[in-house]
Amino acid sequence: MGFFDSEVVQQEAKQLFEDYQSLMQLGSEYGKFDREGKKIFIEKMEQLMERYRIFMKRFELSEDFMAQMTVQQLKTQLSQFGVTPEQMFDQMHMTLERMKSEIKD
């Protein structure tokens, strides 16, 4: 069975995408959130990023041709912006840390 034939992989990909879409839509109102709302939003983003990092690691570790092609496509797309997948995750982490520091008492 191919990597993308797995029902678990398909479900997780679908859930990640839906959760990301929801958070991005919600995030457009971030400036209107109170302190607790901002903390919850940041926490949800951190959880999503960790799930995404694990999901991508599965692709990297898979021997499936299509999974490896997906990893290469991501690397190619990101390289057009001058970043690696690891740098992308690091930048997201730094952004969330900066957001956290802005709401500290």
List keywords for this structure.
78% helix; globular; mainly alpha
What this model shows, in words?
The structure is a single chain. The chain is mainly α. The chain has one domain (3-103). Helix content is 78%, strand content 0%. It is built from four helices and no strands. The longest helix is centred in the middle third of the chain and has 27 residues, at 35-61. The model has no long low-confidence stretch (mean pLDDT 92). InterPro entries: DUF1825. This is DUF1825 domain-containing protein.
Write a brief caption for the model.
The chain has 105 residues and is mainly alpha-helical. The protein has 4 helices and no strands.
Which helices and strands, and how do they pair?
Blueprint: H1 7-27, H2 35-61, H3 65-79, H4 85-103
Helix pairs in contact: 1-2, 2-3, 2-4
Alpha carbon gap, first and last residue: 52 Å
Q: Could you tell me the mean pLDDT? A: 92
The coarse overall form would be globular
Class of secondary structure makeup: mainly alpha
Number of strands: 0
Q: Percent of residues in helical segments?
A: over 70%
The tally of domains stands at 1
List the helices and strands in order.
HHHH
Give the biggest beta sheet.
none
Pfam families: DUF1825
Protein name: DUF1825 domain-containing protein
InterPro entries: DUF1825 (IPR014954)
